[in-house]
Hints:
This protein is mostly beta strands. It has one domain (about 1-230): YVTN repeat-like/Quinoprotein amine dehydrogenase (Methylamine Dehydrogenase, Chain H, 7 Propeller). The chain is about 5% helix and about 40% strand. The protein has one helix at about 265-270, and strands at about 1-5, 10-15, 20-25, 30-40, 50-55, 60-65, 70-80, 85-90, 105, 115, 125-135, 135-145, 170, 180, 190-195, 200-205, 210, 220-225, 230-235, 245, 250-255, 260-265, 280-285, 290-295, 300-305. The longest helix is centred in the C-terminal third of the chain and has 8 residues, at about 265-270.
Amino acid sequence: MYRSTDRGTSWDYSPSGAHYTMLIRYAPSDPERVYITNSSVNFLAGGADLQRSDDGGVVFASVAIPDSEQSHPHALAIHPWDADHLIIGTSSDSATIPYVPKLYRSLDGGESWDAFGTGLPDFTGAYMAAAYDPTDPNRVIVATGPGGNDHFSFALADEAALGGGVGLWITRDSTGSFEPITDGVVGDNAWDIAFMEDGTVFATTDHGVYRSLDSGETWEEVLSLAMGERVNLSLTPAQPDWVVVSEFEGLWLSTDRGTTWTSLYEDYTSASAPSEAWYGIYEVTFSADATSLYVSSTHAQVWRADLVQ
């Protein structure tokens, strides 16, 4: 883990013990609280864990999770009002160990866990993402997708995909009674979910980017995708109408809540000059003030684009 306080110009090592970081998330209610979901990559001793920082990401400590010897946590959702209240979704971790992914909830920063959710499907992929509705935290949406450690739906670097997704699922009450989302969303592999502050929510699948104006009840496709692999979202309170989307070989920005999109991928590939080891984009995110975009790629580099406003 590395941390920058000067927009990526220089970096400091953040002790964590993490080996294969899946997600990094700041708590919405407390920027000093940061969580990381961490994989063991099958053969490493000690199993997977959650990493937690109480000082803004300077130092992390390991937090034990259920099923750590046969799975790893991937999905991570932090309650919008309570930094100690979070949900993780697990993933199959080994092609030789059958495993049905699960959801777990902690109310004390990961010190203890309870199984969360009823009505969820039996499948052998992964919970890729989870999100609380900031207008009603009893409402939670989760995304299911491919398992393994790479989480691709196709073979990559001679490693076949491990299981597959079964779409998006939603609960509307504190008991965690889930049901599938079927109204307007297409695609079994769902990758990411992001709520705006007013309850507008975006989700991505292997078919496209979908938007709901009513907290996930009804959906419409706002961006069709040809490839639909590892499709990630980022929003920013500094520009509440902006959405950025990346897929394996694509990058788009919308400044009108997903109504229209501008492709940034050509500019990115021109700047990054992909090497022979190029596999694509992993993640994209806004800076807190929305003046920059950061893109991480599979060839071990992070790129920054300064946005003109």
